[in-house]
Specification:
Blueprint: E1 5-13, H1 16-25, H2 30-36, H3 41-48, H4 56-66, H5 70-73, E2 74-82
Antiparallel strand pairs: 1-2
């Protein structure tokens, strides 16, 4: 449908140090955590370094594996984008 507007969600990490601390407090390392969360290690490191923003699914995996709320770890932005057909 021409003129259709889609909601775009962008997630960005609030504080990578907090995630690193939570992982360490759980007695894990970054590689072990990424395996536990079922996320590629290289993708996880890219998220922590700010190179990539995670998908909602990946952010949810990170938060749930840490026992945290997604909104405690990630900033959520919503924007409208016109669909191109």
């Amino acid at each position: 449908m021409k003129g259709e507007v889609l909601k775009m969600i962008t997630l960005s990490l609030k504080d990578s140090r907090k995630i690193r601390m939570l992982i360490a407090m759980d007695g894990n390392d970054l590689k072990g955590f990424s395996e536990q969360a079922d996320i590629s290690y290289s993708y996880f490191i890219s998220i922590l370094s700010g190179k990539y923003n995670p998908s909602v699914r990946t952010a949810n995996k990170i938060a749930s594996t840490l026992g945290e709320e997604m909104t405690d770890l990630f900033d959520i932005e919503s924007s409208d984008k016109e669909k191109v057909t």
